[in-house]
């Protein structure tokens, strides 16, 4: 730990300033309080003295005024005016007599004392004494000066004593503790920096000393742990460098494998089944080098035999052209599962693969792996790799590489076979498209037609009506207050209501060769064959009654407590200017009028007699 300058002078100065300031404020407060008490006491004494003298003088002045002895009145008034705290004395008789005496030594008159003059129960005048309290204040102030001096002296002595005690009890131990901390070095594990006498104290400094000692112990422990951690990190760094090196090699291998697979994919995309063997023979040396194997081959299955298509190296005498798989039950199970087969060492084969183990040992094959060529259902060939000198060093990356290679070869072999099935697939695709078209034009919920086929049917009716001079009819149906129904019962219940209404709409128009469609949300549309267009009124009444007969509860319907519908429609004689959009708009306007008129009603415009 580096040396730090811990300066306590600022703290001592602040403490001294605070103590002196508090002591000074206390002394000033005490002095002012004492001065106020002396002033009030002197003021009370003076007032009582004036009241006593005024009462005595009032009797004499009253008698003098009664006998009209003005000289006696003036003497008494003058005697009162000579009192130090009296500023002026006024005697006023009710007969108009006035005597005033002023004390010229007084300068501040700030209080009045008035008495009534009476003789034998008769009021004959008033005695008014104006007082000067500034004299009282001067006397109170002069008496407080010695007291203030005593208070300030006591305050100074007490402050010095407090500072001395504070220095002995706090400042000096803190300086000692600060000096100790300045020279503390955490790397000296055996060092004990806090003096024992400070630790053994039972006051706050002792608590701080013990906390610092404990903190230093933790710092030492942390330092030891840090050194241990640094040593472990160096070890981990070495391991990490080894792992990075291994990972780099693995990434380089994966990069080479990905590049090879990309080249194979491009080559196989351009190839056909007639030249696939030559293409695979060119790829085998690179694949064997990347996998680190001694031999690699391609076999095709024919019943219970495996026919060799190509092999690397070509001079390998341990790879027969035909392998009989009749007694190799493990191979058959593997082919049935269309999974990979990896045998790092032939000795690992169990008793259920005795024939396979014997066949491999006869050819001195130490390690063996096979990857099926499959169309997803069954295997029609396999890619094999083998080692005779050393066991496999195998991992999942090599397995994945060979799987993708086998898949690429399988795709080429499947491509030709799929070509013959293309025509049949196209026919099936046409049928599927027709089916999808029907599904696209059918509402998923109600199974009714959607807007597009309905408009095609309506256009057909318009053309037929023009050609045969027959009317065209369109009707729009809307469920009343359906949003309130969904809010009250939920959308699933709302879908159930729409399904039940759709069944009614499908049933009724059948007698009139009509078409029904869901136009969106709770709105439906119906158009009738031109031969039955004039029957739109009857159809609307039947639909309205059948839906009412369902009795579907709708507590939020202000027009009733069941589900109701509003119906609008139009019947007219079409012309060359008549369009499907015009008919739908007119029917929608009638539906809007039915809703405006109060809902749960039918509004159909019949204009088929108008040309």
TrEMBL record:
InterPro entries the record matches? Diguanylate_Cyclase (IPR050469), GAF (IPR003018), GAF-like_dom_sf (IPR029016), GGDEF_dom (IPR000160), Nucleotide_cyclase (IPR029787), Rev_trsase/Diguanyl_cyclase (IPR043128)
Q: Which domain of life is it from?
A: Bacteria
Q: What is its EC number?
A: 2.7.7.65
**SUPFAM superfamilies for the chain:** GAF domain-like, Nucleotide cyclase
Catalytic function, reaction form:
2 GTP = 3',3'-c-di-GMP + 2 diphosphate
What keyword terms does UniProt attach to this protein?
Membrane, Transmembrane, Transmembrane helix
Q: Which residues form the GGDEF domain?
A: 470-607
The transmembrane residues are: 15-37, 144-166
Protein name per Swiss-Prot or TrEMBL: diguanylate cyclase
| Protein's organism | Salinivibrio costicola subsp. alcaliphilus
Upper classification of the source organism reads: Bacteria, Pseudomonadati, Pseudomonadota, Gammaproteobacteria, Vibrionales
């Amino acid at each position: 730990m580096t040396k730090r300058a811990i300066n306590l002078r600022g703290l001592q100065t602040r403490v001294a300033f605070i103590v002196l300031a508090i002591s000074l404020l206390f002394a000033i407060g005490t002095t002012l309080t004492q001065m106020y008490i002396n002033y009030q006491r002197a003021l009370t004494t003076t007032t009582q003295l004036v009241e006593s003298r005024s009462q005595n003088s009032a009797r004499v002045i009253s008698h003098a005024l009664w006998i009209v002895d003005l000289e006696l009145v003036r003497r008494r008034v003058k005697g009162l005016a000579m009192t130090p705290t009296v500023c002026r004395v006024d005697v006023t008789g009710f007969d108009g007599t006035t005597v005033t005496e002023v004390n010229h030594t007084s300068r501040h008159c700030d209080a009045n004392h008035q008495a009534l003059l009476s003789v034998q129960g008769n009021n004959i005048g008033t005695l008014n004494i104006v007082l000067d309290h500034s004299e009282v204040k001067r006397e109170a102030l002069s008496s407080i000066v010695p007291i203030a001096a005593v208070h300030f002296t006591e305050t100074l002595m007490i402050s010095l004593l407090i500072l001395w005690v504070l220095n002995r009890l706090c400042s000096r131990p803190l300086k000692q503790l600060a000096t100790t901390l300045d020279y503390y070095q955490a790397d000296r594990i055996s060092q004990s920096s806090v003096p024992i006498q400070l630790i053994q104290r039972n006051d706050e400094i002792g608590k701080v000393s013990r906390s610092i000692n404990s903190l230093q112990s933790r710092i030492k422990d942390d330092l030891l742990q840090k050194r241990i951690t640094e040593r472990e990190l160096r070890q981990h760094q070495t391991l990490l460098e080894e792992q990075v090196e291994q990972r780099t090699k693995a990434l380089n291998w994966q990069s080479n494998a990905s590049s090879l697979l990309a080249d194979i994919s491009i080559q196989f995309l351009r190839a056909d089944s007639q030249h696939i063997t030559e293409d695979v023979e060119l790829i085998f040396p690179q694949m064997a080098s990347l996998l680190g194997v001694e031999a690699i081959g391609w076999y095709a299955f024919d019943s219970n035999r495996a026919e060799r298509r190509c092999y690397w190296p070509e001079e390998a005498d341990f790879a027969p052209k035909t392998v009989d798989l009749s007694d190799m039950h493990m191979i058959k199970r593997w082919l049935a599962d269309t999974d990979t087969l990896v045998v790092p060492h032939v000795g690992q084969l169990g008793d259920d693969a005795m024939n396979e183990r014997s066949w491999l040992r006869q050819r001195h094959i130490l390690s063996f792996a096979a990857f099926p060529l499959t169309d997803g259902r069954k295997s029609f060939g396999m890619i094999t790799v083998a080692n005779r000198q050393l066991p496999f060093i195998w991992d999942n990356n090599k397995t994945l590489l060979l799987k993708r290679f086998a898949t690429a070869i399988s795709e080429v072999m499947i491509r030709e076979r799929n070509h013959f099935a293309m025509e049949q697939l196209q026919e099936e695709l046409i049928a599927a498209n027709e089916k999808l078209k029907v599904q696209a034009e059918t509402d998923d919920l109600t199974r009714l037609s959607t807007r597009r086929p309905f408009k095609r049917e309506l256009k057909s009716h318009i053309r037929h009506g023009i050609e045969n001079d027959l009317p065209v009819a369109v009707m729009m149906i809307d469920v009343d207050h359906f949003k309130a129904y969904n809010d009250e019962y939920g959308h699933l219940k709302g879908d159930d209501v729409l399904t039940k209404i759709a069944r009614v709409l499908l049933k009724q128009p059948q007698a009139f060769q009509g078409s029904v469609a869901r136009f969106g949300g709770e709105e439906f549309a119906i158009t009738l064959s031109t031969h039955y267009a004039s029957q739109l009124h009857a159809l609307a009444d039947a639909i309205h009654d059948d839906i009412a007969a369902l009795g579907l509860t709708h507590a939020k319907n202000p027009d009733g407590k069941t589900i109701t519908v509003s119906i609008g429609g139009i019947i007219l004689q079409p012309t060359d200017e008549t369009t499907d959009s015009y008919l739908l708009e007119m029917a929608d306007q009638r539906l809007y009028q039915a809703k405006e008129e109060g809902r749960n009603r039918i509004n159909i415009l019949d204009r088929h007699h108008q040309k």
